[in-house]
Design goal:
The complex is a heterodimer of chains A (about 400) and B (about 400). Chain A has helices at about 1-15, 15-55, 65-70, 80-90, 120-130, 155-160, 195, 205-210, 230-240, 250-255, 255-295, 295-305, 310-345, 355-360, 370-390, 390-395, 400-405, and strands at about 60-65, 95-105, 110-120, 135-140, 150, 165-170, 180-190, 200-205, 220-225, 245-250, 345-350, 365. Chain A has about 400 residues and is of the alpha+beta class. Chain A has two domains: about 1-50 and about 260-405, no CATH class; about 60-230, no CATH class. The chains are: A alpha+beta (about 400), B alpha+beta (about 400).
């Protein structure tokens, strides 16, 4: 019976080829465009978050109490070594870095601007977030005598600086005294994290200690990268209980706009998905309704010769599912091709690079591909197909075979 | 012909209603979506322009790309004199911008310290209105500093406290002075409030050796739409090495950011239109293919195929015009309503302060030209969607059509 039903449904679908192909085309084209847009938006948000996590905050950052409020060296972390060792031993933690950060004035012979000096350990930063991969000019090194610095690309542009030139950084140390250092630019980084690209001057930990007068065991922040699958909120609560003397922030608290952007992207994708699926439902509904109405006498005859209603019901459901499945297969092929292309080559928006930089975005946007795109779309298309036959079937159920056969 | 088309539409109520609603909803959605997109962009732009940037800036050639003491306007009095006689200018003021290190007892911060003429500055920017504590600058002030509230927080200082400024004068000699905070301001532009301080230019000029110099002259105009024209007129009367830039160039990255945002918006709307296009086409196709016998009969009775085409297009046109008109009226009303009563999303300015959002309000922009082209797009979509069904029906001869099952 199953085979017969399926065969009849298949033949009925292709009885009106153009109409069926239009529905399949509608589902396929809209699904593939929808997948490409979802992937692009998800990829864009993920890239922004990922570059911020890699270049700065990690999933979790630890500060001394009041540091976030005042951003002043008075509120520095002490016993940094102990904190780092204990963090490293936690099973959830993948990588740990400590940094010394101080705000001040970056100057060349002709220009000055606001900047942030960040004392780092290059090897640890590379393990933490692959900082070296963000270098766009020069190298990620501080030179043999630690006299060098790697600075944000935008900051370099603002100061008209190139690799090999010198910059003077002045700031107040932890004792309130003004101090300044001269640094030779070794490299430029572009992370798309505006806090780094616009303001950061990376120097060695030793150099940053020299200008801030902080001790060997002191720093302004410790950042953690967590292992895949670790629940950030749960881990944060665990740290807060274990380290009541520290201020502990997840990246979502440090960058609420990025978190909001992720939420907005999900909402936007959800709305787009709902609209497209509603249209798919309306499209299949229209075709199924007409398909049943024009075969009403045929159905009457089938019922009159003793076939049960459920036979017709199954056949109609199969017809709707065949249309949905056809569209889905088309959509999967076209959608995954588009996603794979956008994942590999990206969407080049270099023409708008300055505008994209305003949002902290790269000028080439790469798509993300998530398995759930295909599973949820499949479930929604099946649902739309099933719902689309409810009304036509109700009409069929109320059918009086004799009247239908006798009618014109 | 018209009444026949109307009767046909009313006869196939279900299909007519579905197509009508689809087209109506698409029009409303498109008009309102674009109104919100344009409204939020316009609001961001106007806020930024009125807070500090101004509609036009006059500066030495190369200063915009490479702002430094080497590219200062040097003959300020004569440039200012020229501006006096140009029509369309509402107000103008010179500024001398300098990056310096500001130090309090607690901390030091690099900041933009700008010498301004307090009276004329109040006419071109919102600095005076942004006062939250103390007082605004006046022309008699000497070492008084008017500072961003966030910058004061960074330095841990308040009204009346002293600040040391260390920087370089326009001849690159060392410049240092002690200033007293006389007022704090909050414009809402977070980065601006966290990195800006202002001094009476007359006093600042003595410190910076910049008496007849300025980084730029900021000009506001009577009508922002005419900024390009006014800029052209100013440029025509300026010495050759002086350039005149409008907000489009001054805020190029923001303008581009908005273009990107619009691009994403149109891509999303594009997806919606693809789906709507297909659905309207499917319903049009169902409608026409269900009437093949009827249309074949009309042909057999002597109705010319051209007239049948006209009938089908007329049906489609009635439906499209009615739905787009209704959708445009609803959409235009919503665009107007939310322009007057903007939606307020509490906390939005705080969350997105790093991106230059300074208000919780999300207004729309009611613009008849924009609404008209939005409506035209949906109308065009309706006509494109009916082309294939019409082409399909024309393939049948009258005999084939009458025998069609």
């Amino acid at each position: 019976m199953f085979k017969l039903n399926l065969k009849m449904a298949w033949l009925n679908v292709w009885r009106r080829k153009v109409r069926s192909l239009l529905v399949i085309l509608m589902i396929g084209v809209s699904m593939s465009v929808m997948l490409a847009i979802q992937g692009l938006y998800d990829g864009m948000t993920r890239h922004m978050i990922e570059s911020t996590l890699r270049s700065e905050s990690g999933e979790i950052s630890l500060f001394a109490p009041s540091y976030r409020l005042h951003q002043n060296l008075t509120y520095r972390l002490k016993e940094t070594h102990r904190i780092i060792e204990e963090m490293k031993n936690m099973p959830e933690v993948r990588s740990v870095v400590k940094r010394i950060r101080v705000t001040g004035l970056a100057s060349t012979a002709r220009k000055s601007t606001f900047a942030k000096l960040v004392g780092i350990d290059i090897e640890n930063e590379n393990l933490f977030g692959g900082l070296e991969a963000f270098v766009v000019d020069g190298t990620m090194s501080f030179g043999e005598n630690d006299e060098g610095a790697v600075i944000g690309k935008k900051l370099a542009e603002d100061l008209n600086l190139e690799v090999g030139e010198r910059v003077i950084f002045s700031a107040q140390d932890s004792h309130g005294e003004l101090s300044a250092i001269s640094l030779r630019i070794k490299g430029l980084v572009r992370t798309t994290n505006m806090a780094i690209d616009d303001l950061a001057i990376f120097v060695s930990q030793e150099k940053s200690r020299a200008i801030t007068a902080l001790g060997e065991d002191e720093s302004t922040e410790v950042a953690l990268r967590l292992k895949e699958g670790v629940d950030i909120d749960l881990f944060q609560s665990k740290l807060e209980k274990g380290w009541p003397g520290l201020e502990i922030y997840s990246w979502k608290a440090l960058y609420p706009a990025l978190d909001q952007m992720q939420v907005m992207t999900n909402i936007f994708n959800g709305i787009t998905f709902a609209i497209v699926m509603t249209m798919v439902f309306i499209g299949i509904l229209g075709v199924m309704f007409v398909s049943i109405l024009e075969r009403i006498r045929e159905f009457g005859i089938v019922l009159a010769i003793g076939e049960p209603y459920r036979f017709l019901r199954t056949q109609v459901i199969y017809e709707a599912l065949i249309l949905g499945a056809g569209g889905y297969i088309f959509g999967v092929v076209a959608g995954s091709s588009a996603l794979l292309y956008l994942q590999s080559y990206g969407l080049d928006l270099s023409r708008f690079s300055a505008g994209l930089a305003e949002f902290g975005m790269a000028s080439i946007l790469y798509a993300a591909i998530k398995f759930h795109y295909f599973t949820t779309t499949f479930a929604a298309i099946v649902l739309a197909a099933l719902l689309s036959v409810v009304l036509p079937l109700r009409r069929l159920k109320m059918l009086n075979p004799i009247e239908v056969i006798q009618g014109d | 012909m018209f009444s026949l088309a109307l009767k046909n539409l009313l006869f196939y109520k279900g299909r007519t209603l579905t197509t009508f609603l689809l087209s109506l909803c698409s029009t409303v959605l498109f008009v309102v979506y674009v109104a919100f997109m344009d409204g939020s962009h316009e609001s961001m732009l106007k806020n930024s322009l009125s807070i500090y940037t101004g509609a036009i800036q006059v500066m030495q050639e190369g200063h915009h790309e490479n702002p430094s003491y080497d590219t200062l306007l040097e003959d300020l009095p004569s440039v200012m004199q020229t501006l006096k006689n140009i029509e369309g200018i509402r107000a103008y003021t010179p500024r001398l911008e300098s990056f310096a290190l500001l130090s309090s007892e607690e901390d030091s911060v690099g900041a933009m310290v700008t010498g301004i003429v307090p009276e004329s500055e109040a006419l071109v920017s919102r600095l005076k209105e942004a006062l939250v504590k103390g007082r605004y600058l006046d022309s008699e002030d000497s070492n008084g500093l008017y500072m961003g509230e966030e910058l004061a927080k960074r330095l841990g200082v308040d009204l009346g406290d002293e600040i040391a400024l260390v920087g370089s004068a326009t001849d690159y000699s060392f410049a240092a002075e002690r200033f007293q905070i006389i007022g704090l301001f909050r414009t809402g532009l977070f980065e601006f409030d966290a990195s800006s301080a202002f001094v009476n230019k007359a006093y600042f000029d003595a410190l910076m050796l910049s008496e007849t110099m300025a980084s730029s002259i900021v000009v506001t105009v009577d009508d922002l739409e005419k900024a390009e024209t006014v800029a052209g007129e100013i440029a025509g009367q300026m010495p050759s090495r002086v350039e005149v830039l409008t907000w489009k160039k001054l805020m190029a990255s923001m303008v581009q950011a908005m273009e990107v945002d619009s691009l994403f918006g149109y891509i999303s709307m594009g997806l919606f239109f693809i789906v709507v296009f297909f659905v309207i086409m499917i319903f049009g196709f169902i409608n026409i293919s269900g009437r093949i016998r009827e249309l074949g009969l009309l042909r057999a009775l002597g109705v010319h195929s051209y007239e049948i085409l006209k009938l089908l297009l007329l049906e489609s046109a009635i439906l499209a015009f009615a739905s787009v008109l209704a959708g445009t009226l609803i959409g235009a009303y919503l665009a107007y309503f939310y322009e007057v009563n903007p939606i307020i999303i509490k906390g939005m300015a705080e969350t997105y302060k790093a991106y230059g959002i300074i208000s919780d309000e999300v207004p729309t922009r009611f613009d008849l030209f924009t609404i008209a082209w939005n409506a035209m797009v949906v109308l065009l979509l309706n006509f494109l969607a009916i082309l294939y069904p019409v082409y399909y029906i024309r393939q049948f001869t009258p005999t084939e059509a009458m025998r069609h099952v």
